[in-house]
Amino acid sequence: MRTFLSYLSSAAPVLLAALVLALPAYFAAAAQIRRRGGTPGAGRRVYIYVTAAYAFALLGLLVFRQGRPGDMRALNLELFLCYREAARGFRPLDMINILMNILIFLPFGFLAALPLGGSGKRRLVIPAGFALSLLVELVQYLTARGIADVDDLFNNTLGAACGYALARFVLLLRAGRPKRGVLALLLALACLSPPFAALAVSAASPYGATGYEPYGGEALAGREISFSAGASAFLARLAEDPPAAYFTSGGSLEDAYAAADAFFGRFGLGRSAQDETLYDGDAWLYSEGREYFLRYEYNGPALWYRRMGARDAGGSAGRYTEADARAAAAAWGVEIPEGAAASRGEDGSFVFSLAPGGGLGGSVAVRLAGGAPAEIVSRLYALEPAGTALPLGEAEAAAALGRGDYYCRDTVPEGDIAISSASIEYALDSKGAYRPVLLLLGGECEFRLPLAIE
Q: Any residues with CB less than 8 A from the CB of 255 and at least 6 apart, and which?
């Protein structure tokens, strides 16, 4: 709900501007009707104003509000991708994205079909909605204002069909044909049902989507994929002893406030309600004067502590020791378990990783600047067993790479793929499950394959 309200608040200026711009358009249209000898009634005047306001709102929301020309140009031609992602792990943003793309074209179908009455031309409303949506997507792509998405085209057309059906429902009720009106109403509800169907599929599974969900992976079919002896031995051990999955205890907004108050209180500061930003998935909280920042992610929960503007200008990160990092974390109230394995991050930070077991798992990353803490990201989770992962053998892993069923942020090299090592890492998913991910290292490229849970 917070994310939805945030979206509405960001769109409010565009909607208000549309209401204002519609006034001169309304008066111009009314004057034109009078010059032709007509006198618009109250209903027609309302229709003219609402149609003008909707036209300006549509233009503002879908074209001008998408950013400045040249900011981003992207193209997605993978149909129903948004529904597959939503079904894997439904998030509030999924519902907003899908449902808003349907609802934003609903008025078009309704306003275009309403004046046509029983005319045969009313059947052109749906293809007209498709054509208008296609035009919007083309403008977004050509002006580099956002993603030209085939799913947006589908959902916009659904919205036009829904509006058309609602107009038919109203017209049939006015004509005294309520039974046929019910059929039109059922058609409108059917057009609104796809995002709720995806939500139902997602709700049926205890697991959600991780940050390593396969998306846009290049299919490697046809390439030779080989495994080193070490990688083969690891996959064989994995088949004999599959990794476990876990559930984490979730948090709440009250927990976020308590964590922020405890953190800011260490420096004699209070929490700034003016600077807080709340989402469905997390909360961003600042201290008074914005000296310190805390981000709280509810699913885990995970905590990001930060001293604002802290930089290690002297480049002295390499001088710090593991003991320095532990002491810095303790100074900010973060306790690092003794059994956590320490490593150095690319930015010189210390990363303390704790393998799942004993009811606790996760990691803590500590970055220092000038000998003092600059940022701490604590992802230590209280864990409960949730099931066992289905391991992948060599042939299954190679087949997954061949299909493109992997996550990889690197550029995949040309030619054959030689997997030099294999390991298991864990990722928190959108439903608070701590799930194993198979990490395959091929040259400088990291392939991650989320494992299904038995």
A: 296, 298, 301
